[in-house]
Amino acid sequence: MWLFTQHGFYSVIVDGANREYVFIQARSTKHLQNLRDKFEVEDQIVHVPYADCPYVLRIKRQRWLSLAADLASDVRYTSFLSAASKQRDRLGPRFVVGLGDLWRAVGEVFRPNKIGAEK
User: In which region does residue 61 sit, left (phi positive, over 0), alpha (psi from -120 to 50) or beta (all else)?
Assistant: First the structure.
């Protein structure tokens, strides 16, 4: 699962060796630290050099379910991009610009009369 939040971007996958755990992966250690600070996650961030998402938190699946619910209940904004822009220092300016680029790119996929566009 890819998750874009006002705290950062995360890729969440199951731990193949122990399905009771998930890995919350990020491309920025700052994004995982934001998550740890906001939701009092005590697990340590591990650096995995050369990985696509080189910063990882390994947490119990049950804790992830609770954390995901906390992320959902934390939504208080009427515009995600505006909320993220206000967090530019915590997220990184390039990340915020990238969110706008991503929004436009996904919009293009769904534009009518585009080859391969969703219906």
Answer: alpha
